[in-house]
Amino acid sequence: IGDLKSDGEEFECAVFIATQLKGVKYWVRNTSQKATSFSLQTGTDRFYPDFIVCLNDGRILVIKYKNTRDWELSENIEKRIIGELWERRSGGKRLFIMPKGQDWDAIIRKVFP
């Protein structure tokens, strides 16, 4: 699945999406910097969320996985702010989340508030 390694925290996030997250129609690994990749603009460059999930109800969930060690870095705070703004401007059609490490419950709460 794209450039996804077969172990590690991002792989575990993919396994969660594929096997535990309810309401998933399909999902893809958003490989970075390809012609078809989804990105959001930051103040200095673009960032590429890790997963794009199409939900059965038609909403699109975008997940940028970030480990707990790097979650509070200023560039990741900026990415969360931008992703949340993108979500708010979508009129309820798009969701963005950057879970803190393996907080899979945060993803569930995002999809099913």
Number of strands: 6
Low-confidence stretches: none
Strand numbers in spatial order across the main sheet: 1-4-5-6
Oligomer class: single chain
**Total of helices:** 3
In what range is the share of β-strand residues?
Answer: 15-25%
| Rounded radius of gyration (Å) | 13 Å
Largest sheet: 4 strands, mixed
Distance from first to last alpha carbon: 29 Å
How much helical structure, as a percent, in the residues?
25-40%
Overall structural class, as computed from helix and strand content, comes to alpha+beta
Mean pLDDT: 93
Question: What is the H/E order?
Answer: HEEEEEHEH
Query: Quick one: overall form?
Result: globular
Descriptive keywords:
113 residues, alpha+beta
Textual characterization of the structure:
The chain has 113 residues and is an alpha+beta fold. It has three helices and six strands. It has helices spanning 9-19, 74-88, 104-111, and strands spanning 24-29, 40-41, 46-47, 51-55, 60-63, 94-97. The strands form two sheets. It has a four-stranded mixed β-sheet. The longest helix is centred in the C-terminal third of the chain and has 15 residues, at 74-88. It is globular, with a radius of gyration of 13 Å.
